[in-house]
Amino acid sequence: MLRSMNDLENYAIHATDGIIGHVKDFYFDDEAWVIRYLVVDTGSWLSSRKVLISPIALGHPDWAKKVLPVSITKEQVKNSPHIDTDKPVSRQHEMRYLGYFGYPSYWGGAGLWGGGAYPSMMMTGYGGFVATPHAAGPEAQEAQEAYARAEAAQHRDDDLHLRSCKAVMDYHIEATDGDIGHVEGLLVDEETWAIRYMIVNTSNWWLGHKVLIAPQWVKDVRWPDATVSVDLTRQAVKDAPPYDPAAQLDRKQETDIYSHYGRPGYWGDRGET
Predict the structure, then answer these.
(1) What class is the 2-163 domain?
(2) Where in the chain is the domain with CATH 2.30.30.240?
(3) CA distances (Å), 241 to each of 35, 39, 215, 237, 254, in order?
(4) Which class would CATH give 169-270?
(5) What is this structure's pTM?
(6) What is the pLDDT of residues 68-121, one digit of tens each?
């Protein structure tokens, strides 16, 4: 099922021993268009410090109560590496974070998450890796930290690819032949945490019309100009099936969208029907 990023804001993050805080933003990978971290405001118990929570730690969500359980403790969060969420997150920052919690790196594999499609695969020995939490003994912690330092050194010069979901709201959308609107929201796959669509509001061009555009149709993003260029014409977007945010998007509607643009559906890569 697809979830709106806007709707997920303020969900509670529940550790094994209590509430950590509430979701305030998300960091997504601008190459794979996958949510890599939830930005969580810890509130008064941690002096309103903002921390990152990886989808790797998430359990089964309680959508009715708006709670996302995680397999870590409040103490682990309290002692986790400090990351300034108001500044770009570097690969070195990520390596310290992943090493601290005993998570593998998600980059380098053929899947969205290492060698697989789901973040949960990285915690179950998928591909030979078994995560060891930071709460393990001193020898395990030392090994994790050494691994993190080695990986950080190897990726010191990597480009930054983590972007704030909030920051891209209202970005201009530019078709091959002119402007078509702005980003109003994002729809994410609740299992893979992949961003499947940008919700595009065309009201500044065509009143009252909202459409969905997949990240795979993005030609480039000009971050300094807050502009997303897509490989679609204005007419194609105008004729696309409208998006109703009040209705749950189903596979038939998704198929109609992809068929309209003459593109193959992403679900074929996952063996879905």
Answers:
(1) mainly beta
(2) 2-163
(3) 26, 33, 17, 9, 9
(4) alpha beta
(5) 0.87
(6) 999 999 999 999 999 888 888 888 889 889 989 989 889 878 899 988 899 988
